[in-house]
Write a structure and sequence with these properties.
- The protein has 15 helices and 12 strands.
- The chain is an alpha/beta fold and about 400 residues long.
- Strands 1, 6, 7, 8 and 12 form a 5-stranded mixed sheet that branches.
């Protein structure tokens, strides 16, 4: 597969026993799920229609604003609308769309997203390159999703699937699985296509009440699968800013009984537990519950059989806050950890090592002065860190 144009990375290999590919040209359908998306739907559809796809299927789940009227105003014959009732499940809506698509590629494009203008001409050719690959019908493709106006991008979200072979699981934070073989995990392959997204700007999040929506859907998912660590992690992550000490600890302790790996999920329960512990430490630190946070840091270390980068980060924050002169040995240990790419990628906070960079700079500032700290930060990409006001010290 190394010679496929547009291949970025293989996140999950093609499973054994997958059917052969095909030399026939697959139809391509862009699917857009909508619910009160009058703000962004025209931008989304315009970008979809700028490509050479066969069909743009809008699946509306009960809009009460002008979304349906805006879609109806498009005269391009490729635009179709399917109206279904919202059943409190993104997987159900995606699966209804896949049933309607029938065959070929289904590319899910959120209504608050648009296709990068440099990708509209090449989208179909990029997909065509995958169609004859053995086993591709049991794989999902993941474009690069970039946040407009924010330093964030996502590369492992399944958005392009063979419509007649894969389906989705989960009320929210849904993921693909293979109905024909529940024990197999779909292949997950990065593709060099860029989508832009602005649905997590603070204004949109508040207007659409996304946090409360996600939390409610995750509570439903946990009632259905109480031993599934995926839903437990996302419930903690999505509700984190609203959680108090007892809420955090209740969710952390729930991992003791959430140990089931469900069909199609490529991550083990320990993976979700590690991510949850990192996020929980951050929230506990914000609440000033340092004793408990440091205890969770030991749990993180045990999961990785060595010092976890997020545990090192929170221990360093605590030392900076509690002692007048931090230990030079700590700085050396942080630098060694930062130089270990395998260790850095274990972080549940930032896999690029930026929290450690901020912490190292703060240690340099305390031990060697402002110039040393800013000299280090000049080597790093600009960013803001949750526990530091700016990425440079002024």
């Amino acid at each position: 597969m190394d010679d496929i144009a547009g291949l970025l990375e293989i996140y999950q290999p093609i499973p054994d026993g997958a059917p052969a590919g095909s030399d026939e040209l697959w139809p391509v359908t862009i699917v857009v799920l909508t619910l009160n998306e009058e703000r962004a739907i025209a931008r989304c559809l315009d970008s979809a229609l700028a490509t050479s796809v066969d069909r743009v299927l809008v699946v509306d789940t009960g809009s009460t604003d002008a979304t349906v009227q805006i879609v109806a105003g498009y005269t391009d014959q490729r635009v179709e609308m399917l109206q279904i009732a919202w059943a409190d499940s993104f997987a159900q809506a995606r699966n209804a769309a896949l049933d309607a698509v029938g065959e070929g590629w289904a590319m899910f494009l959120d209504a608050d997203e648009w296709i990068d203008s440099d990708c509209t001409d090449v989208l179909r050719d990029r997909l065509r390159a995958f169609e004859s690959v053995a086993g591709i019908t049991w794989c999902a493709l993941t474009p690069v999703i970039r946040e407009d106006g924010r330093d964030a991008e996502y590369r492992e979200i399944a958005r392009i699937v063979p419509a007649d072979h894969l389906r989705f699981r989960g009320e929210v934070h849904e993921y693909p699985y293979i109905p024909a073989d529940a024990d197999a995990v779909p292949g997950l392959i990065g593709i060099d296509l860029v989508l832009w997204h602005d649905g997590y700007s603070s204004e949109v999040v508040v207007a659409k009440d996304k946090i409360q929506r996600n939390v409610a859907l995750l509570e439903s998912a946990r009632r259905r699968e109480p031993d599934n660590p995926r839903w437990l992690f996302f419930q903690l992550r999505d509700a984190l800013p609203m959680l108090h000490f007892t809420d955090v600890m209740t969710l952390v302790e729930a991992f003791d009984s959430a140990k089931q790996q469900y069909p199609g999920d490529r991550q083990a329960p320990e993976f979700y537990r590690s991510l949850a512990l990192s996020r929980a430490c951050g929230r506990l630190a914000q609440l000033g519950e340092w004793t408990t946070a440091l205890g969770l840091c030991f749990d993180l270390d045990r999961l990785t059989a060595g010092e976890h980068p997020d545990a090192a980060y929170f221990r360093g924050l605590h030392e900076l806050n509690k002692v007048q002169q931090p230990a030079p040995d700590t700085l050396g240990r942080l630098v060694r950890l930062r130089k270990d790419p395998a260790a850095v990628t274990l972080s549940g906070l930032d896999k690029q090592g930026r929290p450690l960079d901020a912490l190292i700079a703060a240690y340099l500032f305390r031990l060697k002065g402002r110039d040393a700290a800013n000299a280090y930060l000049s080597l790093c990409e600009p960013w803001t860190d949750e526990f530091f006001d700016m990425s440079t010290l002024r």
